[in-house]
Write a structure and sequence with these properties.
By secondary structure, the chain is of the alpha+beta class. The protein is built from 5 helices and 12 strands. 26% of the residues lie in helices and 26% in strands.
Length: 206
């Protein structure tokens, strides 16, 4: 047994990572096509589709480096059983929709919100057993526990300016150096300037 914020948790300090999936992708991007074209000084439309692809690629690179979801989206994280606490792995988490699990009779049940506490202040977010509640036993099956939650900014205006600038720098680099930077979906390392910009925004393990 050990304590965290006066709550008691079972087991050891090891918390396994869950399986993270995007269920509903963002409806917009942190940097618009118009903003990207202005940064690139492109005033024609021939490359619009390509630049839009670069916005998506740059977004993926930034999200993977920072462990942040830039724009609001719905995600799930799955575990084969309840860990001592659930690390949501990405941020910023705005809300947890529900926690569902397969009980010992293999019936899908929604865990009452009184049984757990959500900490969105810690980055990434976490779900703990509540002081008077607890995580139940589950049926022996893969993905017996599934958490649905929201993460990301509600609008592009809420994305930090530094992150937007990093996106534009990446887009500019990929636009100017197409062949040796982007090969399919494999992207080379981040420019050093971008790492310096993004490092303060990385969500790291505590």
């Amino acid at each position: 047994m050990y304590t965290y914020n006066n709550y008691y948790y079972r087991g050891t300090d090891y918390v396994p990572y869950g399986k993270l999936n995007v269920e509903t992708a963002p409806s917009s991007t942190a940097v618009s096509l118009t903003e990207a074209k202005a940064h690139l000084r492109v005033d024609f439309t021939n490359d619009d589709t390509y630049i839009t692809t670069l916005i998506d690629v740059a977004t993926q690179v930034v999200e993977e480096f920072t462990r942040r979801k830039l724009m609001d989206q719905t995600l799930t994280i799955s575990h084969d059983e309840f860990p001592q606490y659930i690390d949501l792995q990405v941020g910023p988490v705005s809300s947890v929709t529900h926690v569902k699990y397969y009980d010992e009779s293999n019936a899908l049940v929604t865990l009452a919100t009184s049984e757990y506490d959500v900490d969105t202040k810690i980055k990434p977010g976490r779900i703990y057993e509540s002081k008077d509640g607890g995580f139940p036993n589950t049926f022996d099956r893969p993905n017996a526990v599934v958490v649905t939650f929201q993460a990301g900014a509600s609008s592009a205006s809420n994305v930090p300016a530094a992150i937007k600038q990093a996106l534009l720098i990446i887009i500019g680099r990929y636009y100017e150096q197409r062949q040796d930077v982007v090969l399919g979906t494999q992207v080379q390392e981040l420019p050093l300037m971008v790492e310096h910009i993004l490092t303060p925004y990385r969500l790291l393990e505590l």
